[in-house]
Amino acid sequence: MKFAKFFWVYLSEPMNLQDVVVSLNIASRMLHKSSSVF
Prior knowledge:
It comes from Brassica napus (Rape). The protein is built from two helices and no strands. By secondary structure, the protein is mainly α. The longest helix is centred in the C-terminal third of the chain and has 21 residues, at 17-37.
């Protein structure tokens, strides 16, 4: 899955906790949207 690979690369970059929380929030929303399509 391209998205997962991109997400892991993004997480491997050094960043602070707030960025991680925001990223997880966005990711969960995107996953929720894509899962509701099916």
